[in-house]
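[09:14] KT: can someone run the structure on this one? pasting the chain below
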Amino acid sequence: MKARLTRRLAACHAVSDALLGMAAFGLAYAIRFEAGLIAAPKGQPPFGQYLVLIPFIGLLVPLAFHLQGAYRLLRIRTRVDDFFAVLVGNIVVVVVGLLGTLYFQVYVASPADRAAGTYEVSRIVWMLYLLLGVGLTFAAREAARRVIQRRFRAGLGLKRVLIAGAGELARHVADKILQHGEFGYQVIGLVDDRAGGDTTGYRGLPLLGQVADAGEIIRRERIDQLYIALPLEEHARMIDLIETADRECIDVKVAPDLLHAITLRARLEDLDGVPIININDVPLQGLSSLVKRAIDVAVAAAALAVLLVPFAAIAALVRWTSPGPVLYRQERMGLDRRPFLVLKFRSMYDDAERETGPVWARANDPRRTPVGRILRRFSLDELPQLWNVLRGDMSLVGPRPERPFFVEQFRDRVPKYMLRHKVKSGLTGWAQVNGWRGDTSIEKRIEHDLYYIEHWSVSLDFKILWLTLVRVLFHRHAY
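[09:31] RB: done, structure tokens below
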């Protein structure tokens, strides 16, 4: 039922997004050429020239939104998440639209078509579309969110759920269901063999009886869905519950008792008819990884071009204030534990670790050069890593790469530490924009890194890049 509800809601969002995208493009044409608010020196092109693009807009919008996770509704999505999803999705549409029309102008249009501007689309129309598309789509999603929440608060359309189990797994399932009120579930209670005369449940949910009483409880409480969340040793009980649910003709879901092993998202695969659980699946694969790589190359190349003069000035200051090379190369561990040389502007005296060996930087570190203090304070020493991004060693966003010396120390001491190497290292990351950089808790840093890997989307990457400009450049642990 949950999957059907989610698919239905995602389909409604996709249809709504497509219709609003097409409406926004048509409205953008009207504002640009019909309202008389903006001068049109080249004259007004026929609406038919823009009308042929509207169906393509309708296809592009849901596709662009899907690529960066706007329809993954099983997750907790805040209004900020929705806004960034809508913004980035519409930016993708504009970029593809500009490139598509440019292709037709250069390679398809005849000289007469070029002279008439047949395949030309006003850039002002694209800008107006972006503003209107973001505004209309976000408003529609917010309206849908409020309608659904109001319905469920009124008790309309709720599905009555019974959870079999009262241990850690059952409590985790109960937490998730209670957390996602937007799915319209009402947990009636739990059944567990430890119930006896004890009716104390979890988070106000009562223990309604023992597992053997499930059939009678399902009929009495008019249960719509049964979640089985029993430990592995209760296999026989699990089979009995499935047979009971079949007799009562209700939906039954089984939560595998693998919480201790599942850190990232688990995904069900099919091995020629045999269901297989893929533990710790990473969403950043296939087309998603290509999209992320394209963004990395475009942004890194543009940034390197823009920062060419500041780079030269920093290089001159580094060379002028202390002897040694301008750039510092240090081995780090990246994707799939592969080592690479990260580039930084040298901020410490040459051969600073000759006596101490690898150590963490600390406040008032005497190894820093005068210019290095400023570079590290504002994270300017990290900028040459844009070249690492362009080369493919790193990504713009991801877990920060660590030195192999420290990786060997942390891999056994910090649980799940090595899972951060399932994606490319980043110039910045979710942990860094939340304050976990420098000499801070490794455990909290890993927690944020794993959150990023599991919840990756293009909109999350852009959100982190924006927060990096706002927070990281002025972070108090940047030394």
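[09:33] KT: thanks! The mean pLDDT is 83.
[09:34] RB: yep, looked fine to me
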